[in-house]
Every structure is written in structure tokens, then in C-alpha cells.
Amino acid sequence: MSSTPLSSTDRTRLGRYRNERSRTDRSALYEILDEARICHLGVVVDGSPRVIPTGYGRSGDTLYLHGSTGASSLLAGPSQDICVTVTHLDGIVLARSLFHHSVNYRSAVIYGTPHRLIGDDEKLEGLRAITESLAPGQWDLARRPTPKELAATTVLALSLREASVKVRQGPPSDDAEDHALDVWAGVLPVRQVFGDPVPDPALRPGIPVPPHLTG
Amino acid sequence: MSSTPLSSTDRTRLGRYRNERSRTDRSALYEILDEARICHLGVVVDGSPRVIPTGYGRSGDTLYLHGSTGASSLLAGPSQDICVTVTHLDGIVLARSLFHHSVNYRSAVIYGTPHRLIGDDEKLEGLRAITESLAPGQWDLARRPTPKELAATTVLALSLREASVKVRQGPPSDDAEDHALDVWAGVLPVRQVFGDPVPDPALRPGIPVPPHLTG
């Protein structure tokens, strides 16, 4: 029930809560970004926040996003501040008190103003990063974008300069006096798993599942 | 690679993409909300978007959020527009073309201005909904909030009136001419699973794991 670990807005707070700390090392940031498949993208539209799930990719210290060039795309307009958040839910923290219920998680929050890629080569590089993040191994397998498809796709690059990583792991942080309670406490682990590939019903016979999907 | 399904801002678009449609029935909304454990909360701070993961709960057509009453909490300030997004990633859609790579997902996006609950009884009702969402079964087990804990907790109620549900399921939507390609196509299913409960190392001996955690 304690929402403080997840509701704080302080990007730099360190170790205020037991088992939780902001991280400043880049490797933790890269790990969180590289392990996830989708992010939540926040933009401001007419003064109000809008948050949508979308794919992304990372290469070095750049995060890539893409969208349709259509007028309805969140990313088709002029440069604007955005926020990209990637979260891994690792466990439900079951404390002796409701107040100290929480979650184990790893999150990365990136702020900045992305710039739109113009040249076909740089757009393809961004799309390659996005594909490798969403579906590793597919870039070298599937048909590459046609000029028309590429023209219909907006690709944005966002610096990872302003990024905040937060991690909470470990058992509940109950108050000392609550340890005497007759209440079970611990963590229910959560993880994301992949199932067996399901072929398109329209798949032509004789095309094997590529090895990168069976690992 | 096709980001259009996830990047659209049009809340009411219907069936523009094969396999994808906006849903208007409440049951789809409830299902998406009730099945997830965390949401992504978007707010505007100094004109810029901020997106953080946090817990939530639902009761009827009300969504509950909570936060610390501390000054650093995103939710401690005056009434403001927020956006709450809940996403289930159900599969990676592997098309014959990179352009039609996508994801199968279910998402709910809720917009509105929440109101802060004041009375202890209504705050407890909100916290019960949040606990039942995050850790079903724990409300009746763990120690209830003290007056001090309750006073330190902000509880917000957000109407589900303005909610948008989007769902994409099914095989890739390749262009007809790409079906002749010698490329495997299909879906890699993704799901979230729970592991076995891990006891707090400080747990007193003889306290069994409650049944609602072993199912």
C-alpha cells in the first residue's frame, strides 16, 4: 500500500527507503532498456498528459522511437518534450502491514526533446535499433522497408543524457514492531516469459521457425 | 516496425488496422484494469510530461491511486489532469516485412482530473481497492493502517468516464505480395507469470504461506 517508492518525483533522491535507491551507473540503465520490449511514452497535448505504450530501441546513448507520419501520430508534430518510461515488475512485496506493501521493480525514466531523423540511412539505423529491441534477429530476416514505407515512418532520436533509474528489490521493509505479528511476509516473484512461436495461419508450408525464436 | 498501432493519438479510431480496433465495451476495460498490477501515470510538471509506474485499484467505475502526502509526491499537489495507462503485452508480431512487425497488446488509457479523498472511510475504501489489485487477499491478512499512516497517504479517485481501450491480437498483417516471401511469420506469445512466494528472511518460524499466494 505504501506508494512512496513509486510515486516520488524526486529524480535524485538516494536511499531514502530501505531496499530502494536511485542508480546512476549507465550499465543499470542499459540493462533495463535492453531487456524490455515496450516503453510508455508521455507527451503533453493541449496542456494535458497523454501516455501510450510503444516500441523503442537503444543504440549507445540514444533511444529511438518511431511513428507514422500521419497527422494523428503523437510523434509527427514539431519538437516537444517527451518522457519515456520503461518498467520491469519483478515482484509483489507482501509486508506484515498494508502500509509497507510495495513492488520490486526496475524502472528507467528518460526526459528530453527528441530530434527527427531525416536521411534514409540514419532512419534505417534507428529502425534497426527498434527492431533489434522488439524482435531480436528479425532485422536480417524480414523484408527491408521500401522507400514508400520509409517515407511513411517518422523516426526520432532521444538522448539518454537525462535519465533516472530506480530499483527496488528484496524483502518487505516492515516496521520493527510489526515483526512480532502472526502474518506471513515475503515476495511473490513476477516475470515475463515467452511462449512457443505460433505460425501465421497463412504461412506457406516448409518455412522453418528461425533459430532466434526457438531459444 | 510499424508503430502505427501503438502511436496513434486518435482515441476513437475504429478498425483502421486489421486485427486492431478500439473497444467501447466496459467489460474489456475492466478486464484490462483488473488483470494488471501496475499502471503508468502521466502528469505535466512545468509544462513537461512525466511518466512513472505506480500501483492502482479499481472499484466500479472509479480508479484509485495513492501517494505520499510528502511534497515530492506527484499526487500531493492541487487537482490536475492526469493520464493513467495500463498495458498488457501479449505477443511479438513477426511479419514477413519489417514494416509490419508489431505487438499484440491490450491497453487502457484513462484521462481525467482526480479528486482527493478526505475522510478516513473513503480513503480506506480506496486503499482496499488498490491492495486488492496489487496483492489480492492481503487486505484481510495484513495489519491495517494506523491513523498516522493513513494521514501520510494521499488517496485519489479518478472516474473511468473518459477511457480508451485498444486491442491488437492475431497474426501479422503482411501485404498480400509479401506472402510469397520465404520468411517465417507468426507471433511469439508473451505473458507475465508469478513464481513461488519467497519468505522474508526475517519471517518468524511457523507462519505458513497464505492460500491466496499459492494458487
What's the arrangement of secondary structure elements?
2 copies of one chain form a homodimer.
Chain A: H1 4-7, E1 20-23, H2 26-35, E2 38-45, E3 48-55, E4 57-59, E5 62-68, E6 82-94, E7 102-112, E8 115-116, H3 120-134, H4 147-151, E9 153-159, E10 163-168, E11 186-194, E12 198-199
Antiparallel strand pairs in A: 1-10, 2-3, 2-6, 4-5, 5-9, 6-7, 6-11, 7-10, 8-9
Architecture overview:
- Two copies of one chain form a homodimer.
- Chain A has helices spanning 4-7, 26-35, 120-134, 147-151, and strands at 20-23, 38-45, 48-55, 57-59, 62-68, 82-94, 102-112, 115-116, 153-159, 163-168, 186-194, 198-199.
- With 215 residues, the first copy, chain A, is α+β, with helices and mostly antiparallel strands.
- Chain A has a single domain, classed as Roll (Pnp Oxidase, Chain A).
- In chain A, strands 1, 2, 3, 6, 7, 10 and 11 form a seven-stranded antiparallel sheet that branches. In chain A, strands 4-5-9-8 form a four-stranded antiparallel sheet.
- Chain A is globular.
- The two termini of chain A are 38 Å apart.
- The interface between A and B is large, with 107 and 107 residues.
- Strand 12 of chain A pairs antiparallel with strand 11 of chain B.
- Chains A, B: Its EC number is 1.-.-.-.
- Chains A, B: It is an enzyme of class 1 (oxidoreductase).
- Chains A, B: InterPro entries: Pyridox_Oxase-rel, Split_barrel_FMN-bd.
- Chains A, B: This is Pyridoxamine 5'-phosphate oxidase family protein.
